[in-house]
Write a structure and sequence with these properties.
Helices cover about 40% and strands about 10% of the residues. The protein has about 750 residues and is α/β, with parallel strands linked by helices. A hairpin with a 7-residue loop joins strand 3 and strand 4.
Amino acid sequence: MSEQPMNPHPNDENANADQAEQEAGDGGRVLDFPARPVELTAPADEPAVLERDRFLTGEIVNHPDDAGGGRPVLVDAPAPRRPDGVLPWIGREIERRPIIAPWLRHRDDIRDAARWATGWAWHAAGFHTVRAPLYAARLAARSPRGAVVALANAGRWVGDAESKPLRDGAIRGREADQFLRLAAARAERVRARRRLAVVAVLAGAAGLVALDTWAPGWLLGLLAVAAVLLLGRVGTTPDKPVTGRSVVAHKPTRLTSDLVVRALGALGLGEINKAMSKGANGITFPAPITRDGPGWRADVDLPYGVTVSDIVERRDRLASGLRRPLGCVWPEPAHDAHAGRLVLWVGDQDMSQAKPRPWPLAAHGQADLFRAVPFGMDQRGRLVSILLMFANVLIGAMPRFGKTFALRVLLLAAALDPNAQLRIFELKGTGDLSPLEGCCHHYASGADDQTIDAAMESLREVYAELNTRAKRIAGLPRELCPENKVTPELAARRELGLFPLVVAIDECQELFSHPDHKDEADRLATGIIKRGPAMGVILILATQRPDAKSLPTGVSSNVGIRFCLRVMGQTENDMVLGTSAYKNGIRATTFGPRDKGIGYLLGAADEPQIVRSAYIDGPTAEAIAGRARALRELAGTITGHAAGETRTDDRPARSILADVAAVFAPGEDRLWSDTIAARLVQQWPTTYPGTTPATLAALLKPYGLAPAQVWGTDETGTGRNRRGYLRDAITTAWEETERRRRRTDGDNR
C-alpha cells in the first residue's frame, strides 16, 4: 500500500476543493463550510427586513457618524434579565396575599357566622320537631312497601342475584369454561346463604318468642315502633323524602371573571369594546376573585384609557350586566394603584335592605372622644368608627335621606363622654335633636331669628375661647403638654377648662345664608375649623343644601371628615366631599331613592368608605340621652342650659332620680318597675314618652341602681314579688349626686 503524501497547506482553499472533488467522485456530495464566519447581507430586495430585525434585537446603536443618516435609533433599553441567586424577588413589586381569610380576622364577622349557625340549627330543630308526628305517619304508611322491599332484597341476596350479569356475559361470549366456573361458585354461595337465612329466621323467631314471654309491654311497643319506622325508611324512594326543607336557600350567583367581563362589555364604553373586539379583551385581574365578608371582591385592570370614574357613573348598567340589585354592586377606585384599577365588590344582599346592626353604645357603655366612636357599618357589614377629636365634620345630603339621623349618632356619642361640653343648634325647628337637650350647655331649636342669634352668640363665645385656650396651653409646662395640644390627661383636669367642646349646627345653610350674619358666621366657623382641633374644639355641620351660597368655601375646604349621602349633582357632591371628588370616582350621586342613611365617608380612614350610619329611633335616642345625662350627673359636668341657667322654654331641668322619687306616694317605700314607668309617663309625658321597665333600668343603671325583687299587691289585692326599687335607695343616690354637683360647682366658681 502506497503512502499518501500529507498536505503541507491544510488551510489552502484550493486543496480543500480538490479533496472535495476527489471525495465527490465516489458518489457523495460534500458541503463546504467556511472556516471563518462571514457577514450575512440582506438580499437587494429585502434590506428593510434585516435592518428591522437587527433594530428589534438591539444590534443597531447610534454612532456619532450616523447622525442624519436616516438609520433607526434604539430608544427602549433591553429588558434586564431576572436576577438569579438566593433572593430573586428582591427589588420586584409583589403583593402578599393574606394568610388568614379576611372574614376570619374580624371579630364581628366571626360572631355573625356563629350567630347565623346557631340560629339555623335552632330553626331546623324546631321545624323538624313540630313535624315529627307527620314524619312518623309517613314512615308508618310506607312500612308495608318497606317489608316487601326488604324481603325482595333478602331473596336476591340468597339467590346470588348480583352474579347473574357475569353468567349472562359468559353465555353471550360462548365461554363455556367461564360459565361453568361461575355456576359452581354460585351454587356454593347459594348453599351457604340458605343455611344462614334459615339460621337467621329461627333465631329471629326464638327472639320474638322470648320477648313475648319475658319482655315488658313498653319494650315490645318500642321495638314495634322502631321496626315500623325502619321498614318505612326502607320503603322510602329518593323522589319522596320523609322530611321537608326547613330553609330555602336563594344563593346569589358566584362572581366570576366571565361575569365581570360581560358586565363591563355591556357598559357601552368605546375603549372596552375596541379592546374586546381584537380577540384579547384587554381586561385583566391582578388578583383572584375572593370572598370578602358577605360578598365577592374582584380587582380589575381596565383597558388602557378607561378610568374607574367611567365605570362608577354607569353603576346601574354594571348592576344590570351582573344581574344583581343596584344596592349590591359597589365599584370603587383603588387609591393605591393607577386610575384604571377597579375594585368591584358585589354583595349577597342589597345594602339598603340588610337588617341594620344595633349601635354598640345603644344599651350600655360610655364614649371617649379621644378614641374612635362607632358611627355605622360599611357595605361589608364591618363597624366604621370616627375619631372626632382633632377633627371637624361636615354632613350633607338631600332632604329625607338620613342627614339628621347621622348627625344624631355623633352627638349621642359625644353626649356619652361626660367630660365633653355640647352646644347644639337645630335650625330646622322640628326638634329632631331634642333628646339631647338635657345634656347641652347651649341648646336651641327653631327656624326663627332668635335661634340664629343664639347660635351666633355661642359661636362668638367659642371663637373667643380659642384665644383663652391657646394662652392656657402655651403657659403649661412642657412635661404636661409636650405637643402643645389638648391631651386626655389635660381634658380630665376640669380646672384647666380644656375639656372637649362640641358645637353642632343642623341646617347650617340657614346661618351661612342669613343676610345679617352670613359674613360673620363664615369668619367664625372658618376660624374654629382651622384652630379648634388642636384645642379640643369640634365643629359639626349638617346641611341639606350644599352649594356655594349656603356653604362658604372657607368652611367646606377645611373640614377634615366629610359624610355625603345622596345628592343630585357634581357641584353638591364636590362641595361636601371636596374638589375633584366626583372626577376621582367618589360620587354620592349614584345612590338611589332607597339608599337612605348610606353615603360616602372621607377623612375617617385612609381611603373613602361607603357607610350606612347607625339607625337610632326617637325612643332609643331618649334612653341613650337619659343615660348620658346620668353619667354627667355622676361626673358633675352638667352646666348651662342643662343645669337650668339658660332656658328656651318654661320646662324645668329634669333629674331622673328626683322624678322617680317624686312618683312615690306618701307611705310607699317600694314600687314595682312597671308602676314607676307608668307614673313617669303619666306625670311627664313629653319628657318620658314610652318609658318601660327596661328603659327605667337603663336610666338608673349609671347611678348604681338595679331592679330587685320587691313585695307588693296588684289591682286585685294579691301580694306577690316583682322587680322594682326601694324609695331609700333612690333618695340616697339622689342626695349623693346633689352633693357631688354642689361640690363641683363650688370648685368651678
